[in-house]
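hiii, so i know i said id send this last week but things got crazy w the move. better late than never?? heres the sequnce for the chain we talked about at the cafe, plus the structure i predicted for it. fair warning i was half asleep when i ran it
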Amino acid sequence: MKKIKIAIVGVGNCASSLIQGLYYYRDKSPGEAIGLMNWEIGGYRPYDIEVVAAFDIDERKVGKDVNEAVFALPNNTAVFCANLPLSGVKVQMGKTLDGVSEHMKDYEAKYTFAPASLPEPEIDDVVNVLKKSGAEVMMNYLPVGSEEATKFYAECALAAGLGFVNCIPVFIASNPVWAARFKAKNLPIIGDDIKAQLGATITHRVLADIFNKRGVKLDRTYQINTGGNTDFLNMLNRHRLHSKKISKTQAVQSVVGAPLDKENIHIGPSDYVPWQKDNKVCFLRMEGRMFGDIPMNIELRLSVEDSPNSAGVAIDSIRCCKLALERGVGGILYGPSAYFKKHPPKQFTDDEAYQMTQQFINGGAEQRVQTEIQAAAAVSK
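okay and structure toks below
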């Protein structure tokens, strides 16, 4: 069976959960594969994904085998598949740029990164590593707010001829200029900002969609999240949250019917609680009016291990990207982007996005979807 060769940028908690999962499901049958949306996509199972290159800037990870690095501090996600075999792939020194917030240095090393004192690569250096490794798909797991660093690695993916899966809220797929560049190179892109398997955003979207479809007027809502991983620590710098708040807010606004005024919707990370580690707690409230203008409200508390919650979605994103490469489809994958990401280039309801993604997996004409969306956009101008 052929492998899907991937490069990982940022060997943090999400990368740890993804890599653990590639081994965890090796001994599972389809009936035992709890936690996967799809056991097989295009003939590829989860364990057919192989990490062939990885980049990070933490001295506790750089130079180590990637299967060891995923357990190094400051990673603190759940370990559900320990004692991984050595992969033979060493973590390469990455490019820092804006990948680290200044305030991170104020915390103990066990909570934040330890900068590696090695020369940082240029684009040509990264491209050479990617080409030698045979990587086909790049996974971007950089911290929230890494605008320049994400663009650096997107340039590397374009130069090396890789598909790109953007898991963070830096707008690449949803930026027409970047999307056009991937289209011109006939390279697929799925983005932006991963939508967890059963996390705060998908839960909020489903409830908002129910309000809309059942005739309940949503008047106001908030979603407040806390966690103790480096992602939440990084987001204490509110200047890095601009695109994150846009991503999460638009994900909900797109399914409420009439969008709420800014003062009636608040969605975003709230605070860092170290002892929570990789556990994320979401507090969600929705206030509305039903038949006869009678008020009602919902309050919900959701607790999930944050990084495993993203890994199953990542596995499906990788496999869809590989299918596009095999089929010669470049540019935005609209169905997978809408289903797997919070801020896709075009929002659809989750039911619509699910159907589009399944059609794509089953050989549906993604190019036709791209043409129709582009034509509609041209008419609207």
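btw Residues 100 and 143 are 7 Å apart (CA to CA). thought thatd interest u
miss u guys!!
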